[in-house]
Batch of 2 targets.
Target 1
Amino acid sequence: MIYKNKQLCKIRTVTTFVVMDKDKSSWQDSILQAAQFCAGLSQKFLLQDYEVQSIRIVTNPFGEYLNTATLHDAKADLETITQLLNEQDIPGLRIRFAIGEARTKHEIALLPELIKDYGDLCNACVNIGIDEFSVLDNELITEAALAVHQISKITPRGEGNFNFTVNFNCNPLIPYFPASYHRRELGKRFVIGLETPDLLVQVLDDFNSSNPDENHNDLFKGYYEVMREGLQYHVDNVKQIVESINNEDFIFSGIDSSAAPSKDCSSMVEVYKRLGVEYFGASGTVEASSLLTQVFKSIQHVELVGFSGLMLALTEDTGLAEGTVNNDFDIRALLTYSAVCGIGLDTVPVPGDTSIEKISALMRDTGTMAFRLNKPLTVRLFPVPGLKAGEMTIFESDDLCNCAVLSVP
């Protein structure tokens, strides 16, 4: 069957989680062990014809091991870690590093300059909680909004915000950056993240060509079954490969079943079209989003971690980026769709002069939904210096698509 084609399912990331301490002499062993483990497992996947795109290392909160007394001290420690990472020679594989979560206003305030200097080796997040009255921690939200604003000003084209996100109701062990974080008490772990839009498009094409006259209810039942079957096949394969390795150092903690689109694979917009939605944002988008979420949540035989849901990363998906040019949806629609899927507001470009108050309000809306609906949601905004709503971005990062800037009402 066509869904068994391993080229349709890529391993977006092998992500390890390590515990770092103030003792700098231990850092080399921690990083080396994680890198070697990722490289070894990646080779196993490659031998089984699964392409691996990146390996990632995530730490406990950076305040537990970096000297955060001053920005200078934090940069000096991060420079040491960067040198250790750059010493890892793993041909053909991209190494990414997350320094863990920022937990205080002081730590959040350090992030803009750290991200400016260290970029993809300094991914970070902030976890916003609620109190006993279900009120969000608005002090941290405001500080995070200030960090987003500052990053946009001091990094080229505001692209540094690719490496920073604000999490609401997110658990540890997310394989995808920058929402990923770790906790010391969990010890050494690893998880797998997939990239499967090509798989979804192919199985839907096959189904539609074989069932041209089905009614809506039968179509949706069929869509569910073929997508679930295709995804389950590859998840089972991945789990079998993971369990075949001789590993006593890192505990396998699960797979994130999200499709995780990128600019180098089929757009999720193509999936929606094959589900009968004229374009992403048209009537039927919510229904299709809910169906896709059910598929990702249906996976069995393995622990599901991270989002394990529908990820709509605006500037990482060519079809979604094109939709902004066509005015197919707005920022409020993206937030609405998060009610039945995820990931929140991810890689969304907004006008460079968007106020701290409006950024904070978007974060509060997203956080309210996350806790009210008991689901993980994030906010990763890109205020783009000098651009207004409707104008085109000119991103240069290999990870980002260019699209129209969305207005913030």
Target 2
Amino acid sequence: MKNTSLFLASIVLVSTGFAQNPKTIVETACTACHALNLITSAGHTPADWKLVVERMVAAGADVPKNQVAAVTDYLAKSYPEGNVPKAVIIPGPVKVSFKEWTVPTIGSRPHDPLATRDGYLWYTGQYANVLGRVDTKTGKIQEFRPPTPGSGPHGLVEDKDGNIWFTANSKGYIGKLDPKTEKFTEYKLPADAKDPHTPLFDQKGILWFTVQNSQKVGRLNPATGEIKVVDSPTKPSNPYGMVVDSKGTPYYCEFTAPKIAAIDPVTMKIKEWTLTNPDARPRRIAITADDLIYYADYARGYLGRLDPKTGAVKEWPSPSGHDSQPYGITVVNGDIWYSESNVKPNTLVRFDPKTEKFQTWAIPAGGGVVRNMMTTRDGKNIVMAESALNIVALVTISK
């Protein structure tokens, strides 16, 4: 789901190619599609406005080079950073170290990370139409470009043969890259499934995926190429993050509803659980070895847990408060790890279910909205993407 500020900057950057007063560009281009107060209510640091502009250029905005600096400067001076919640740092028994890499293409907006079996860290460069691969030992980064322009690579997952699968969020297909041959294959979705989001393999090698704004979920059989897509029962629900339990049942969270749902892997019939607070908006989910589902409540600033066996729900306020916007989430050795995406700087949060205590760290480069994270293949460490900062990271955990 695109950040509001990115939409705003996209509109700001449309111009005719002639030098203009930046204020005029904002007032005319912005109000063509949105009320002006959407710009005036946005606020960023100068560095963040620069990154926003770069992402829009990478996404294809028609911005003459001689106007980019002026528009960026105008935005930074006119709409400075507002009251962003400050990170709450809680000490604890676990130690972590961060290693961060800036990806080579400016404005890529790395969305999802992927830790592959061979030790590489992959990422989707959503706005630059690239898949990137980081050698975490040498720091070397290689980029692969899908043949369809503007595909909007989003979610990432690896199959048993080492192929990299991704959702083409902007072009309505599921893509596969063979890293050995660098060959791409596309699996086109039905016309009413326009924006595939999160992909995930089950234990039988079937690829499941959410289709966010189309209000659907689907599956793809890689052996045959067969695709089946079904409607999410609640409208709107915006199916978002996804996990698979120990029995092969896919679960997804509904970002515009207070619900988590399961898909019968045979019939594709969907069962929903309604969370206890009607304002809950789970954006990403993680699952433990005993099939308990933890969710990041983006709207309310909570960490929550659903037991699908009983329907019981329990919640804990996130350390940095109501506006902290918990987002990317994963499980490492039974502990829940997630990021608070709206604090300055973003935090990495650890929650111990046994003690129900939190520990937090400031992400060194700032985070820039950690939209997703996952464990490394040995289950010991974490990879994550720092979208707005054009950075991907490896977090090494020790006690």
